[in-house]
Each structure stands twice: as structure tokens, then as C-alpha cells.
Design brief:
- By secondary structure, the protein is α+β, with helices and mostly antiparallel strands.
- It is built from 8 helices and 36 strands.
- The chain is elongated.
- The N and C termini lie far apart (133 Å).
Length: 584
């Protein structure tokens, strides 16, 4: 009896001990879980304490400040666009080398006409460079059409644009482009704005690496861009953002594709995958599919796969096909253990994805309306607002085809650049009937600024001061192949009484002067500016002077060796025998 009581007592004590140990283990487990959650929150807070905003396409995303961000090559309207750091001297050297490379390649007939067109371009955003059209290909033959045989002919050219501005070079290229669409690259270049520090722009447009493209862009141009990022403190974590507008939505969304793929995997592989999330998620007002998985790799490394996808629309530029991915456990030689726990990885993912939104626009004047003057040579296409009042040369016409209103037209700032109406040569029958045949180009007319001033030039009612010549000075008026164009840049300042540094059009910097923009020859002494005298300044005398002249600053607006220079003109004037007359 005594032994039975002792046995029962031992069993009771053992049960109490086990219960105590179980309770202690449970308390410890809860404590460990709370500690893990605390550590995860602390780690996420540390990584996201300082964030930086990146503009990608038309979207903004906040990334940890330490993130190293890279952009992939952008693509708009079938044109690949890449940007990189380069000095102006390096750019000019590379530009010349590229032009020589293109010329050195035989054309399709074995001749030396591979380079069909070389066009200089300069934009009001400060970009300058050239556009090349080359490497024409023609494929023709016959093919069956079901009822018979028909001939086909496919023709394509390569179009390249190399431009530079603000320390940034931008290369644009499209191979096999239909000849009728070669003007798309000049039009796109005119919309490019250098943005070396990737500052979020205030005007509407599409952000690429170190630049952005001003609107208007249409959804049919299928703009696309990719962004990659990594964290130096967690080198096993990678990010990727893909944007593509105007694409046909996939028939299946992310979740449906994932479920089908998972069902086809062997059971052993499915056992290694745990879905932490698999549902729709709305971010920034856009609905997409979210898939978060924990994967145990074959080497037993735990890694994470995060994926949010918007299937996109074909007709809304602000709802593109969008993919944002984050993965952990990426090693140089294969998968490695994730540096973040499940909770920390989810916290980081939520902090970044919740910041994705369409870039809002702030009410702010555009760059060319702040009062800054744009450079001579700026190119703008028809339909765009005129960035500066002045005389613009039409890029269409020529070869006996004239332009209604003239090849050279005065257009005011803010007006829409016109589409040129081309006046074709009249046939004898047209002249008899009194008809003038006309047409319009399929592409927006290119215009180039050639004379910068606030109003149209008109003859002055008073005599302006002439540009005097130093005794013994000889002025040569000829082609622009001399060195002055390189040595004296547009925008150079000089003043009254000093020798003119270069032949060209100089603007008087006194806003109330009557001079406006005038042409002066190199080495002539710049004249004083002429001003009207207000009535009564010299009393009531009717014979008092109507104008006065005083010193002024002059600014070079355009290099021109002659007032109305034609190709090949070359005239030499002697200052001793012929003074220069003023031109208002």
C-alpha cells in the first residue's frame, strides 16, 4: 500500500514538472516571438528611416537612401534611348568618329553613299548634336496571297541621333525604320530635357535616366523603361521595376499564371514553396496582383520572392503594364540564406510598394517661359508652342517647292508652330487655269530659330550709329569655314568702342534702344546705342535733338559672315575705301 502511494506521488510530481516546463517553454516562445517582431520592426525602420524618391517613367517610387539605382535603356516609339556622362569635348570627338564610321561602310549597292543625311540639331533645352540617316535596306520579291502571286517591297533605314547637353550625352537609335517615319527622332529630340541629377520634374512627361521627355506623348508610342536597385547593407536583395504603356494585356494575370505553373510542378518542389500572400492589391489607386512566396532552395537556403503586377491597358498611358519585384537570397554562386527574416522582408516590401504612385504635376511655368532666352539654332516641330519670338526657318520646301508665307517666318512666343503648306511648281495647265497646287507633309514641319528678338525688324525712322573701322583694317566676308565660329561662341558679350570679335548678328542689351539686332563685321568698332529723347528734355525748342547716343553692351546672337550670305559668297572690303552702313 505504501509503495502504491509513493508511485502515485511520483507520477503527480512528474506531471507537475512537465506542466511547469511546458508553461515555461510557451512563455519563452511567446517572448521570443515578441523579440523577433521587435527586431524585424527595428530593422525595417532602420532601412527606411531615410528614403529618396525616384522618377521612373510617369511614376514615383520611394527607395531606401542607400539604394544603388540603375536605369535600363528607355524605348519610345520604337526608338532606343540611352544616356551617360560625357564631356562636351569627348562628345564632339565621338560624334565625328561615328560619322566617319557610317561613311566608311559601303551602301547596299557597294557605293559610298551609306550616309544619306547628316543634320545638325539644337534644342531650346540646351541639347546639340547631329542626326544621321544611313544603312538603307531594300527587300523585294513575290509571295502568294491565296488567289495568286503579288510583289512585295520592304524598305528601311537606320536613324541615329547623338546629342549632348548639361554634361549628359543621349543616344537615340532605330534600325530598319520605314523612311516615312525618319522625322520621329528629330521630333523626339526636341522634347528631351537633360536632368543630370534625376530631379523629379514639374512638367508633364516621361522620366528616363538623367533626362525626361516632355509631353505630348501618346499611348501608341509605347513608352517603356526599367529600373534596377540593390542595397549595399543587404547585397542579397534585388529590386526591379518594369513599365510599358500601350501594350495588349495578357490573357492571364499573375495569380492565374502562378497557380497553373505551381500545379505542374512535382510534389517535392511544391512542398518547398509557401505562399505568404496571393491576392489582389491596390497601390496608388491601381489594382494589381500580389504574390509573395517563401522558397526553400535545394541547399536548404530560405529565400523570398515578391511580385506585384498590373496587367495594364492598351489605351491609358497612366495605367501601363507594370511589374515590381523584390527578391532575397541572391548570391553570386547561387541561392544563399536570406539576410532578412520573413517579417522584416514583408515590412520592407510593404514600405516600398506602398509609395508607388503616378507622378503629380505642380503648377509651375515651363523652362522656356521663365525669361531665359533660348539659343539660336533651336529646333521645334509644328504643333508645339513657339518657345521664343523671332524669325524661324522652315525645314520643308526647297528644290522649287516654296512655302506659303515664306521659308523664313516671324512667329511669336506661345503661338503654335504652323504646319507648312507647300506650294508645288505650277505646270503650264495650272498657270492657264490660275491654280496653285499645294500639299502638306505627313510629318510635323521642323522649324529652326535663326534670329532672336522680341519684335519684327522694321527700318528705323532715325539714323543709327555706324560701326566704325580702324585705319588699315581689312574685313573679309566669306564662308563660315573659318575659326571664328569655334573661337567666339554665340552669347559672347562686347561693348561700344571695342573691336567686334566675330562677324554676325549682335543684339543691343539696352531694352529701350532703337538698335535691336544688327549685323557687324569682325574687327569693326561696335557703335553706341541710339535712344529717342522725350519731349521737353531740351526745353520747348523745336530744333533740339530727337535722339541721343550712349555706350551699350552687345551680345552675339548668330555667326554670319555676311548680312544675307549665300553659299560660296566671298567678298573682301577695305575699311579705308568703304565704310559699313548700319542695318536696323
Amino acid at each position: 500500500m505504501k509503495r502504491c502511494v509513493q508511485a502515485r506521488l511520483a507520477i503527480l510530481l512528474a506531471g507537475i514538472l512537465c506542466a511547469g516546463l511546458t508553461a515555461a517553454w510557451a512563455v519563452g516562445e511567446v517572448r521570443d516571438q515578441h523579440e523577433t517582431v521587435r527586431r524585424d520592426k527595428h530593422e525595417v525602420a532602420r532601412m527606411t528611416q531615410k528614403m529618396k524618391t525616384e522618377c521612373v517613367g510617369r511614376f514615383l517610387i520611394d527607395m531606401p537612401e542607400e539604394a544603388e539605382v540603375e536605369f535600363g535603356e528607355a524605348r519610345v516609339d520604337g526608338i532606343n534611348i540611352s544616356t551617360f556622362d560625357e564631356t562636351l569635348d569627348e562628345f564632339h570627338k565621338r560624334l565625328a568618329e561615328r560619322e566617319n564610321q557610317i561613311k566608311a561602310v559601303p551602301d547596299r549597292l557597294g557605293g559610298n553613299k551609306n550616309l544619306e543625311r547628316s543634320r545638325e540639331i539644337r534644342t531650346f533645352s540646351g541639347l546639340e548634336g547631329k542626326i544621321f540617316v544611313h544603312s538603307r535596306t531594300i527587300t523585294e520579291g513575290t509571295q502568294g496571297n491565296g488567289l495568286g502571286v503579288e510583289r512585295y517591297r520592304f524598305e528601311g533605314v537606320t536613324v541615329e541621333g547623338l546629342v549632348h547637353g548639361n554634361g549628359i550625352s543621349i543616344d537615340l537609335a532605330s534600325a530598319g525604320r520605314e523612311p516615312e517615319w525618319i522625322e520621329d527622332i528629330p521630333e523626339l529630340v526636341n522634347k528631351l530635357v537633360p536632368n543630370p541629377d534625376n530631379i523629379v520634374p514639374s512638367e508633364s512627361g516621361f522620366c528616363i535616366n538623367r533626362a525626361y521627355i516632355r509631353d505630348p506623348l501618346t499611348v501608341e508610342q509605347r513608352e517603356a523603361i526599367m529600373m534596377f536597385a540593390r542595397l549595399p547593407s543587404h547585397p542579397d536583395i534585388d529590386f526591379m521595376l518594369i513599365l510599358g504603356a500601350g501594350l495588349k494585356p495578357d490573357e492571364q494575370g499573375l495569380l492565374e499564371r502562378s497557380n497553373e505553373a505551381l500545379a505542374q510542378r512535382p510534389i517535392a518542389e511544391r512542398m518547398r514553396i509557401t505562399q505568404l500572400r496571393a491576392e489582389e492589391r491596390t497601390i496608388g489607386g491601381i489594382v494589381g496582383d500580389e504574390l509573395v512566396e517563401l522558397i526553400v532552395e535545394k541547399n536548404d537556403a530560405n529565400v523570398h520572392s515578391f511580385w506585384w503586377e498590373v496587367n495594364g491597358t492598351r489605351d491609358d498611358i497612366l495605367v501601363p503594364h507594370l511589374v515590381f519585384k523584390m527578391s532575397t537570397g541572391n548570391g553570386t554562386d547561387g541561392p544563399i540564406q536570406s539576410s532578412l527574416s520573413d517579417g522584416a522582408a514583408l515590412g520592407l516590401w510593404d514600405a516600398i510598394t506602398s509609395s508607388i504612385r503616378v507622378r503629380p504635376l505642380r503648377a509651375q511655368d515651363s523652362e522656356h517661359s521663365t525669361g531665359a532666352r533660348i539659343p539660336i539654332g533651336t529646333s521645334v516641330s509644328a504643333g508645339e508652342p513657339c518657345p521664343e519670338s523671332g524669325w524661324w526657318i522652315c525645314g520643308d520646301g526647297g528644290n522649287r517647292v516654296s512655302v506659303l508665307g515664306g521659308q523664313r517666318q516671324y512667329i511669336r512666343k506661345g503661338e503654335r508652330m504652323p504646319q507648312a503648306l507647300l506650294l508645288l511648281p505650277q505646270t503650264l495647265w495650272d498657270k492657264i487655269r490660275g491654280l496653285q497646287p499645294s500639299s502638306e507633309s505627313k510629318h510635323p514641319t521642323p522649324w529652326q530659330l535663326v534670329d532672336l528678338r522680341a519684335r519684327k525688324r522694321s527700318p528705323s525712322e532715325v539714323s543709327l550709329a555706324t560701326a566704325a573701322m580702324q585705319v588699315g583694317t581689312t574685313v573679309t566676308i566669306g564662308s563660315l569655314s573659318g575659326s571664328n565660329e569655334k573661337l567666339v561662341p554665340v552669347g559672347t558679350y562686347s561693348s561700344t568702342g571695342l573691336p567686334c570679335p566675330a562677324s554676325g548678328w549682335w543684339r543691343c542689351e539696352e531694352s529701350h534702344a532703337l538698335d535691336g539686332t544688327r549685323w557687324f563685321a569682325e574687327s569693326s568698332l561696335l557703335p553706341p546705342a541710339t535712344f529717342t529723347v522725350a519731349p521737353g528734355v531740351f526745353g520747348r525748342s523745336s530744333t533740339g535733338p530727337k535722339t541721343i547716343q550712349r555706350r551699350s553692351a552687345w551680345r552675339l546672337m548668330r555667326i554670319a559672315d555676311a548680312q544675307c550670305q549665300l553659299p560660296g559668297d566671298s567678298v573682301t572690303l577695305s575699311a579705308e575705301s568703304r565704310p559699313l552702313s548700319p542695318l536696323a
